[in-house]
Amino acid sequence: MLIFNHVDFSYPNQPVFQDLNLQVEQGEFVFLIGKSGIGKSTLLKLIYMDCFPNSGYVQVGEFSSDSIKKKNIPFLRRKIGVIFQDFQLLNDRNVYDNLAFVLEVTGTPRKEIKRRIIHALSEVGLTHKQTNMPEELSGGEKQRVAIARAIINDPFLILADEPTGNLDPETADEILSILKKINSRGTSVIFATHNYELIRAYNAKILKLDNGKAVKVVLKKKEN
Ligand SMILES: Nc1ncnc2c1ncn2[C@@H]1O[C@H](COP(=O)(O)OP(=O)(O)OP(=O)(O)O)[C@@H](O)[C@H]1O
């Protein structure tokens, strides 16, 4: 489903990855860890093709970074849901319209838009908030709207970039539970985080970025 094959990547004057190799299978839940600045967000950008390798390639589903045409990048992004620490909702639209926006740009019929929004909001337990503005929501609710937006196109992969960074521990647990539920239906999840409490609480694969070179799989110690 996802392959990094001998990937080198640098920003101008800032090397990030050298010979990075990794693989994620369909349906896997993966925590992505590593110290600040090591390249977690950059790795996610390489997946949704906001960045491209200097050499090597990234294969995401049927798309490969070395052959994808620019005009096809939106098709790739429609199949990937992305969630950020700061939610990135449109603050001048209510919850319903934040979700409708994603579907309107692809010309989805109105009836279908409504059906999908109700489904996505019920997945995150927020059908009662569809007419609220983002400023009327708590941080956890905003992140749940962002998750609803991320799943609205039924993606095969969700990328979560420190999605609990602005949330209290209990709310962070709720967000993880929602992503686990979505993952249990076959959507892969890559969850970049510094939140080791969450990692300890959920037995998933852990990929650690180390000096931008290798990715280690760290096996979780079982708690007594
Ligand atoms: N647009 C950019 N131009 C130049 N350098 C960048 C750019 N974006 C990130 N970097 C640098 O690339 C490196 C990796 O950044 P990245 O944001 O991927 O790290 P991260 O592991 O996600 O960090 P954090 O945990 O603090 O969010 C850092 O040294 C950062 O300063």
What does this structure look like?
The protein is of the alpha/beta class and 224 residues long. It has two domains: 1-79 and 156-224, 3-Layer(aba) Sandwich (Rossmann fold), CATH 3.40.50.300; 91-154, no CATH class. 33% of the residues lie in helices and 26% in strands. It contains seven helices and ten strands. The chain has helices spanning 40-47, 73-78, 95-104, 110-123, 139-151, 169-184, 196-201, and strands at 2-11, 14-24, 29-33, 55-60, 63-64, 80-84, 157-161, 188-192, 205-210, 214-217. Strands 6-7-8-3-9-10 form a six-stranded mixed sheet, with helices on both faces. Helix 3 (95-104) packs across helix 4 (110-123). The two termini are 34 Å apart. The relative contact order is 0.20. The model has no long low-confidence stretch (mean pLDDT 93). Bound molecules: adenosine-5'-triphosphate. Residues 11, 14, 16, 34, 36-42 line the site of adenosine-5'-triphosphate.
Outline of the structure:
The protein has helices spanning 40-47, 73-78, 95-104, 110-123, 139-151, 169-184, 196-201, and strands spanning 2-11, 14-24, 29-33, 55-60, 63-64, 80-84, 157-161, 188-192, 205-210, 214-217.
For this structure, the CATH topology of the largest domain is: Rossmann fold
What is the beta-strand fraction?
Answer: 25-35%
Radius of gyration: 18 Å
Helix content: 25-40%
Small-molecule components bound: adenosine-5'-triphosphate
If helices are DSSP runs of H or I spanning 4 or more residues, what is the number of helices? 7
Number of domains: 2
Spatial sequence of strands, sheet with the most strands: 6-7-8-3-9-10
Low-confidence residue ranges: none
Globally, the shape reads: globular
Largest sheet: 6 strands, mixed
CATH homologous superfamily label of the largest domain: P-loop containing nucleotide triphosphate hydrolases
- The H-and-E topology, N to C, reads as EEEHEEHEHHHEHEHEE
The first-to-last residue Cα distance is 34 Å
CATH class category name of the largest domain: Alpha Beta
Mean pLDDT: 93
Structural class: alpha/beta
